[in-house]
Design brief:
The chain has about 100 residues and is an all-alpha fold. It has helices at about 5-10, 20-25, 45-80.
Length: about 100
């Protein structure tokens, strides 16, 4: 029962590589907001559960963004550390692949 919430969260998360959410790329628009105006007297236990789930999903989303940033930073550091800076001067012989 939680899978649709996870799929929605993934599809509405901004991806750094594209700058868009998968939902925006698929449907060419932003997703509709799920929050509905509810009068305080109309709140049911299901609504309270939905609020808890929404807050939990948002926290998980923020944690995933932070983890993604940490992994990206470590990968960049590893790449930069192992990369050799190559400089060429006029007249150097180089191999060109066609």
């Amino acid at each position: 029962m939680q899978l649709p919430i996870v799929v929605l969260s993934f599809n509405t998360k901004l991806h750094a590589s594209t700058g868009y959410t998968p939902f925006e790329l698929l449907f060419e628009r932003e997703p509709a907001q799920l929050s509905v105006a509810v009068k305080p007297k109309d709140i049911t236990p299901y609504d309270l559960h939905a609020q808890v789930v929404r807050k939990t999903v948002e926290k998980l989303r923020l944690d995933a963004i932070e983890s993604s940033f940490v992994v990206h930073s470590k990968g960049k550091h590893y790449f930069d550390h192992r990369r050799k800076e190559v400089e060429f001067a006029v007249g150097d012989i180089v191999l060109i692949r066609v």
